[in-house]
């Protein structure tokens, strides 16, 4: 692939017909070739495919992407993700290397190419879909780049022709100490090459302090090249998605493709898009009752509750995480204001009204901009959000204890809430070490509710689907509350459970 | 008092201005003699600072407790009835006479003639009664000034430049057309984040000892932004009470998207983890060049400003925290024994004990000296490395308090900090709005025996201790404008050549 000026018409698209015959001529395109296994998806496909292929290829790719996203929700490491995805990729989206003697190379690559562009159409419509699509596509690209052989990877990177400036010998000597501190390699092995780029090109390397910076230039060791290529991939994809979104209204399509595209994007629902909960039936959810209910809370919320009771205060993100959770379990705005007011008992009414009242009302969509009010405020945080965003800083109590506590503090907190079984604590420790924070939380849940779970399973009250892994604090509460009140439930509650 | 009516006063404001002025002398009668001296000491001479510091400590607490007795320190303590810093009339005089509107405009506009950089910029006002008014914008400095004088906000904040005029945002057909384009890269350092390591003060209180944390933070962040990222126009501003803000104004910094801001923030952030996460510094070895450079800068401060001045491990509880950060169990045991036998041992000696005991075999047999050294480096970082409020830096559309506004609690003006004289900056010696009003009144006294016409040429802020700060701001803005202008000329020249081709 040649690097070309953006303003120039793609040679492949160039009109080869006499302009006078243009409107009658069949458009002719150069046959797309796939010299490399990987693709930057720069040129859209132009050949004809059947409608069935159109749909089937898109669905196959969607399966892969959805599973990839699920992996990231489960917090799999790259290696685990690769292992998990391998059979799926082979089934739905195989992509063999040049060195393999597969006869279907071209067909495989064509499918990969076309399905990418079909999904691009399906997911360009909203900001949220674009962001998620770009994220999972990047993950897929990274995965494939990592499993490429070194030779093919280098050939592919060469073919991209990105303008990276190699670091000259004298400069390398000048910064020898600094460079070797960032290369991360042991003394014996010599780093082969360094490239100098604007630091903006490699923001993730800068963020992780994995490159040496001087005067706005990042010195990237050659082993970080894949990460740069990935960043470039994301950048171009994001831009292309923007453009696609703008072009979509002009698609002006008949009823063949649009329904398929709509259907596709609807199937790509976010597991954490929102937790629309109503009050759990039978529970008295009032400010006064929170202390009683808190035994059903997941550890993160129990910790917030304890900190709140201990200090009569929570910092900003703690209040946010906790008040949204309480909103999710069905505490209404008035009760919520009462709850926060009484909890912050060391401050005056005036201070409360001035500094804290607004945030609580904002969370319920009572104040704030138009979109906030229309949306009824923010939705309760999912585990994903709690794990990934805003890690707690000094003096803050929010976040996920399984992730953000050290082991001693986590163990002592667990013991305080009544989990002291050695095997459970050991399991939590291993989960934490393997960064499987969900597993740890679900393990604790299963321990705390082991009797009720057994009963529920034996009596077939809850189906397996209703007992899948918990990935939302509000789900934790809901399930915990229902399980603990199994005995008390009357028929009305059973009906309720069918629906949830 | 002819001088008290500033030339800009328009007629409708006359009455109120005179009211203020009528108040001011009455106040001076009580206390003028004594406090002029103090004011002078505060700003000009260093020896006075130490003496002043103790008084100021008391004073700050008093403000917080809203104590009504202030006879003792009449100079700068706000008098609850007449001279509250947030009093609208005080604010009016301040905005009218002291606030450097012109330079603020040039700073945000990057050129002498009004552009969208200023016109589409969001200003958010905190009005009387804690009403918060967002999405204000103004085509020129005069109109901004006029509106500020009309509304008399107790403070105002600066947001990003938007794609369209923020006032018109609701008239747009689709809301996605209204989005932030550019804003200075900002940093916020706040002493409350140091509460678990400072021993002298807590919460909103500060003194010159804990201010050293801010001094170190500025040094480390400033050098990283300049050397590593190549930014040139960095202004540090005292936040009025207990922290400092940085405004990185280079064009390249202003136009960064959220991702880039996040990555700079992540690059600079070292202290991570909440109250429960135990060890807060987890960095790779070998140390990244930024970290080894920071360690070199911070090491002397650690000795002087932390070990000696703060004595952070005086209590056995806090010493226990130190031990929890050290890797060798046997060594910890012998250290604990030693410290228990001599209560009250200074932190400096405790720090030295670690090495001396390790050398004399107090540790376990196969003591890992490398791990011990690493742990000691981590401890130095935990006790000195800047603790940034990182959210401020991550978002393009975060609002930050404007320089030169008055902090409503302390009455202090948020003045820029000259980094060339960073060590000399005294947060407790920063002019207060009340002090400025007195200075301008007493300046009249000097004027009576001096030349009358000279007074006319001087701006009001030039007659007060605000002068050096405004002058520093001016030179900063001029340098910024010069850099913004140059590339344009260059581009024109290049285009000219291209035409000839």
UniProtKB/TrEMBL annotation, chain A:
Protein name (Swiss-Prot/TrEMBL): DNA primase large subunit
Gene Ontology CC: one annotated term: alpha DNA polymerase:primase complex
Cofactor note as given: Binds 1 [4Fe-4S] cluster.
GO biological process, one term: DNA replication initiation
Physiological role: DNA primase is the polymerase that synthesizes small RNA primers for the Okazaki fragments made during discontinuous DNA replication.
PANTHER family membership: DNA PRIMASE LARGE SUBUNIT
Family of this protein: Belongs to the eukaryotic-type primase large subunit family.
One Pfam family hit: DNA_primase_lrg_N
Domain of life the protein comes from: Eukaryota
Residue stretches making up the DNA primase large subunit C-terminal domain: 295-477
Automatic annotation (TrEMBL), chain B:
Similarity comment: Belongs to the eukaryotic-type primase small subunit family.
Single GO cellular component term: alpha DNA polymerase:primase complex
Domain of life: Eukaryota
Residue ranges, compositional bias (Acidic residues): 31-40
E.C. number(s) listed in UniProt: 2.7.7.-
Natural source organism: Daldinia eschscholtzii
Region (Disordered): 1-53
GO biological process terms, semicolon-separated: DNA replication, synthesis of primer
Name under which the protein is recorded: DNA primase
NCBIfam families: primase_sml
Biased composition (Polar residues): 1-15
Keywords on record: DNA replication, DNA-directed RNA polymerase, Metal-binding, Nucleotidyltransferase, Primosome, Transcription, Transferase
Entry's Gene Ontology molecular function annotations: DNA-directed RNA polymerase activity; metal ion binding
């Amino acid at each position: 692939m040649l690097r070309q000026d953006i303003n120039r018409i793609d040679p492949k698209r160039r009109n080869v017909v006499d302009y006078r015959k243009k409107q009658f001529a069949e458009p002719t395109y150069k046959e797309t070739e796939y010299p490399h296994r990987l693709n930057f998806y720069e040129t859209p496909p132009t050949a004809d495919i059947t409608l069935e292929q159109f749909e089937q290829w898109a669905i196959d790719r969607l399966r892969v992407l959805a599973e990839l996203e699920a992996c990231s929700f489960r917090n799999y490491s790259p290696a685990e993700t690769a292992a998990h995805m391998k059979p799926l990729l082979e089934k739905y989206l195989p992509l063999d290397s040049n060195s393999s003697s597969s006869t279907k190379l071209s067909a495989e690559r064509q499918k990969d190419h076309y399905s990418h562009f079909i999904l691009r159409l399906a997911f360009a419509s909203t900001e949220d879909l674009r962001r998620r699509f770009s994220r999972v596509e990047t993950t897929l690209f990274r995965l494939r780049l990592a499993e490429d052989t070194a030779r093919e990877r280098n050939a592919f990177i060469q073919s991209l022709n990105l303008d990276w400036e190699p670091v000259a010998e004298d400069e390398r000597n000048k910064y020898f100490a600094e460079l070797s501190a960032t290369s991360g390699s042991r003394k014996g092995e010599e780093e082969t090459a360094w490239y100098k780029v604007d630091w903006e090109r490699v923001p993730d390397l800068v963020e992780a302090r994995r490159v040496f910076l001087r005067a706005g230039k990042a010195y990237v060791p050659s082993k970080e090249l894949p990460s740069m290529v990935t960043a470039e991939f994301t950048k171009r994809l994001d831009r292309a998605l923007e453009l696609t979104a703008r072009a979509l209204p002009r698609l002006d399509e008949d009823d063949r493709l649009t329904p398929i595209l709509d259907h596709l994007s609807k199937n790509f629902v976010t597991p954490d898009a929102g937790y629309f909960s109503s009050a759990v039936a039978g529970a008295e959810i009032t400010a006064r009752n929170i202390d009683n209910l808190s035994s059903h809370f997941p550890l993160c919320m129990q910790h917030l509750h304890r900190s709140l009771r201990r200090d009569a205060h929570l910092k900003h993100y703690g209040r946010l995480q906790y008040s949204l959770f309480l909103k999710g379990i069905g505490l209404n705005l008035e009760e919520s204001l009462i709850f926060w007011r009484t909890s912050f008992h060391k401050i005056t009414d005036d201070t409360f009204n001035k500094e804290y009242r607004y945030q609580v009302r904002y969370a319920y969509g009572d104040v704030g901009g138009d979109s906030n009010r229309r949306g009824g405020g923010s939705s309760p945080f999912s585990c994903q959000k709690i794990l990934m965003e805003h890690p707690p800083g000094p003096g803050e109590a929010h976040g996920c204890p399984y992730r953000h506590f050290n082991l001693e503090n986590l163990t002592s907190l667990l013991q305080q809430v009544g989990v002291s079984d050695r095997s459970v604590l050991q399991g939590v420790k291993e989960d934490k070490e393997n960064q499987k924070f969900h597993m740890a939380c679900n393990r604790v849940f299963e321990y705390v509710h082991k009797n009720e779970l057994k009963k529920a399973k034996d009596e077939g009250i809850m189906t397996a689907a209703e007992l899948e892994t918990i990935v939302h604090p509000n789900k934790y509460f809901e399930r915990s509350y229902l399980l603990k009140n199994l005995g008390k439930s009357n028929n009305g509650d059973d009906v309720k459970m069918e629906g949830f | 008092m002819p001088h008290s009516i500033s030339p800009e006063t328009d007629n409708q404001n006359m009455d109120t201005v005179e009211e203020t002025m009528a108040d001011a002398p009455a106040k001076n009668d009580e206390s003028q003699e004594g406090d002029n001296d103090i004011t002078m000491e505060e700003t000009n001479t260093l020896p006075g600072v130490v003496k002043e510091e103790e008084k100021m400590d008391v004073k700050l607490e008093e403000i917080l407790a809203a104590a009504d007795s202030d006879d003792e320190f009449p100079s700068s303590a706000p008098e609850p009835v007449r001279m509250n810093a947030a009093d609208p009339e005080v604010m009016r005089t301040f905005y009218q006479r002291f606030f450097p509107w012109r330079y603020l405009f040039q700073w945000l506009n990057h050129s002498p003639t009004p552009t969208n950089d200023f016109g589409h910029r969001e200003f958010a006002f905190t009005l009387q009664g804690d009403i918060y008014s967002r999405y204000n914008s103004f085509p020129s400095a005069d109109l901004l000034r006029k509106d500020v004088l009309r509304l008399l906000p107790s403070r105002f904040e600066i947001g990003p430049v938007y794609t369209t005029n923020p006032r018109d945002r609701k008239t747009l057909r689709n809301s996605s057309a209204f989005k932030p384009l550019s804003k200075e890269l900002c940093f916020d350092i706040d002493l409350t984040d140091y509460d678990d390591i400072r021993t002298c003060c807590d919460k909103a209180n500060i003194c010159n000892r804990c201010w050293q944390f801010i001094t170190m933070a500025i040094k480390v962040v400033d050098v990283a932004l300049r050397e590593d990222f190549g930014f040139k126009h960095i202004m540090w501003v005292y936040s009025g009470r207990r922290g400092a803000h940085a405004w990185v104004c280079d064009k390249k910094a202003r136009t960064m998207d959220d991702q880039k801001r996040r990555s700079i923030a992540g690059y600079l952030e070292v202290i991570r983890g909440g109250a429960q996460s135990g060890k807060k510094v987890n960095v790779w070895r070998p140390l990244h060049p930024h970290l080894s450079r920071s360690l070199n800068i911070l090491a002397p401060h650690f000795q002087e400003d932390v070990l000696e001045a703060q004595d952070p491990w005086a209590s056995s509880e806090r010493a226990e925290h130190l031990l929890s950060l050290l890797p060798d169990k046997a060594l910890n045991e012998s250290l604990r024994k030693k410290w228990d036998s001599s209560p009250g041992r200074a932190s400096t000696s405790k720090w030295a004990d670690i090495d001396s005991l390790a050398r004399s075999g107090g540790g376990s047999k196969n003591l890992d000296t490398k791990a011990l050294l690493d742990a000691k480096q981590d401890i130095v970082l935990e006790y000195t490395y800047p603790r940034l409020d990182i959210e401020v830096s991550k978002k393009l559309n975060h609002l930050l308090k404007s320089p030169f506004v008055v902090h409503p609690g302390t009455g202090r003006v948020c003045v820029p900090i000259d980094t060339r004289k960073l060590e000399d900056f005294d947060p407790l010696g920063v002019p207060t709005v009340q002090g400025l009003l007195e200075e301008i009144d007493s300046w009249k006294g000097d004027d009576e025996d001096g030349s009358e016409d000279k007074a006319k040429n001087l701006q009001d802020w030039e007659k007060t201790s605000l002068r050096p700060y405004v002058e520093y701001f001016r030179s900063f803005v001029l340098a910024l404008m010069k850099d913004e202008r140059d590339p344009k000329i260059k581009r024109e020249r290049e285009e000219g050549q291209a035409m000839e081709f």
